[in-house]
Design a protein that fits this description.
13 strands, globular, seven-stranded mixed beta sheet, Arc Repressor Mutant, subunit A
Length: 303
C-alpha cells in the first residue's frame, strides 16, 4: 500500500535521523506538519510495524515501504561552455573547474553517491575530453557526447539522454557547487525543483500557487530562486519524454532551456513542487570575479 505524504515525510526524516530522541513537537517543527497530524501518522506507522519507539527508529518493514520512493538514477547536463568564467574555462568546462581543491562537479557526484545513487549519466560537450579524468574515481558514470552543444540550448543534451528519463530521475545541472550534500536525498515523493526564498531577484525564479510552481521567469519578487537540481517521478518522466520530443521537433525547438517545457510551455501537464533550500546550500559561481572571491588561488588581476 502506498504511503501517505505525511507517512512518507515522517519515515524519511526518521531514517535520516536514526536513534535520535525526537519529541512530537520536534517533528512538527522540523517537518512543518501539525502535532495532531504527526501523532496520527506515528500511530499508523507503528501499527504497520514501520517504526519502533525508544528510540524512534525505522524498521525493516519501514525501509521496504520506502523502497518504491528510492531514487536510483540521475542525469547531469554538463555540455556548456561557461564563457563568463574565462580564463578559468579556457582549457576545461566550468564543471571541471577546481574550487578550493575540488572540481565543481565532484560536489554533485559525491552528494549523489552519498544518497546511494550510482546510475549516473553525464552529457558533455565543450572540452569533452576533460571529463575523462573523472572515470578513475567514478568508473560507473556513463558519458554521452553532445557535439551540438554550441548550436542549440540545453534541450539538446536532454534529447540525447531521453532513455535515462524513466522510472523517476534526478535531472541536474553540473555547474553548481554543492556545499550541503544533504540536499540530494535518497527518497522522493513527488516532482520538485530546489529553490531558496527571495524577497527580490533579477535571476531565474518562480512563485508558488496552491502548492505548486508558477510564474517561472527571470526577475521576480516574493519568490524562490531557481536552482538546477530537480527530481521527476516516473509518471512525469514519461510526460517529459514526449514533451521534450514534441518541442524539439517543433518551431524553434532547439533554442529552449529544458526547464521551459514543464514550467512554461507545457505547464498545465505538470504539478511541480518547490523543495526549499538555503542559499548557502548551493554556491552559484556565475563569473570569474565570483570564482576569485571564493578561491584566492585564482589571480584577481585576471578577472
Amino acid at each position: 500500500m502506498p504511503l501517505s505524504r505525511y507517512e512518507f515525510e515522517l519515515l524519511t526524516f526518521i531514517e535520516r535521523n536514526a536513534n535520535t530522541q525526537l519529541l512530537i513537537r520536534d517533528l512538527s517543527n522540523q517537518l512543518c506538519i501539525s502535532e495532531a497530524q504527526i501523532s496520527r501518522s506515528l500511530k499508523a506507522l507503528q501499527e504497520k510495524d514501520y517504526l519502533r519507539t525508544k528510540p524512534l527508529t525505522i524498521t525493516e518493514g519501514g525501509l521496504a515501504a520506502l523502497e518504491p520512493y528510492r531514487v536510483k538514477k540521475a542525469l547531469i547536463l554538463a555540455a556548456g561552455f561557461g564563457s563568463r568564467m574565462m580564463p578559468a574555462t579556457a582549457d576545461r568546462p566550468k564543471p571541471m573547474v577546481t574550487v578550493r581543491g575540488r572540481r565543481i562537479i565532484e560536489t554533485l557526484l559525491d552528494a549523489l553517491i552519498s544518497a546511494g545513487i550510482r546510475d549516473i549519466t553525464l552529457v558533455r560537450g565543450y572540452k569533452k575530453e576533460s571529463f575523462d579524468a573523472l572515470i578513475e574515481k567514478y568508473p560507473f558514470v556513463r558519458l554521452i557526447d553532445n557535439d551540438q552543444y554550441d548550436k542549440s540550448n540545453n534541450i539538446s543534451s536532454v534529447m540525447l539522454a531521453l532513455d535515462v528519463l524513466k522510472g523517476g530521475c534526478y535531472l541536474c545541472e553540473a555547474d553548481l557547487y554543492i556545499s550541503n550534500p544533504d540536499i540530494i536525498t535518497r527518497y522522493q515523493y513527488t516532482s520538485n525543483i530546489l529553490g531558496s526564498y527571495s524577497l527580490e531577484t533579477d535571476d531565474w525564479s518562480f512563485r508558488m500557487k496552491d502548492g505548486f510552481i508558477c510564474d517561472y521567469q527571470k526577475g521576480n519578487t516574493y519568490c524562490y530562486n531557481y536552482y538546477g537540481i530537480s527530481y521527476w517521478t516516473a509518471d512525469d518522466c514519461e510526460k517529459l519524454q514526449r514533451d521534450f520530443s514534441d518541442v524539439w521537433n517543433g518551431p524553434e525547438g532547439h533554442d529552449y532551456f529544458w526547464e521551459f517545457i514543464p514550467l512554461v510551455l507545457k505547464k498545465e501537464r505538470y504539478q511541480v513542487e518547490i523543495r526549499p533550500c538555503r542559499k548557502q546550500d548551493i554556491v552559484e559561481i556565475d563569473n570569474y570575479y565570483e570564482l576569485a572571491e571564493l578561491d584566492p588561488s585564482y589571480p584577481a588581476e585576471a578577472k
